[in-house]
Give the backbone structure.
Amino acid sequence: MQQQADKIIQTLKAKGLRVTPQRFAVYADLLARSDHPTAEQITNHLNQDGPTSSQATVYSSLQALREVGLVREVLLEEGVCRYDANIEPHHHFRCQSCGAIEDIAWDQLQDLDLKALRPGLQVTHYEITLYGGYCNRCHPE
Ligand SMILES: [Zn+2]
Ligand SMILES: [Zn+2]
């Protein structure tokens, strides 16, 4: 646990971020989960043992982490911004019933053939979102 905490502090410092309790708490929370929470869900989680964080400080911590590339926004639903501390290239699966979002490792899907695009389209980056299926909580078996 202490090791993990030291690692987080080192990571924040290496990115030139001042280590504040809020940034630490938000980043640690995001690293420990893979459900791509909203800022509100992070705030609720941090406050479950008593109020320590306001939505505004969580949000500004997220922006600071995002600006240095430790956290990315995941926009899979209109008007809903979720956050991800997995900054390696990866794909997403989104359950059509409960909305759960799960990471899919990059090498689990075949690379797209970008050479098949019409000439003139220059693509440097893509990621795939798989929709329309169910997670195993919604469709057990
Ligand atoms: Zn589901
Ligand atoms: Zn993700």
Notes: The pocket of zinc ion (ligand 2) is lined by residues 36, 74, 84, 86, 90, 92, 103 (CB under 6 Å). The helical segments are 2-14, 21-31, 39-46, 55-67. The mean pLDDT is 93.
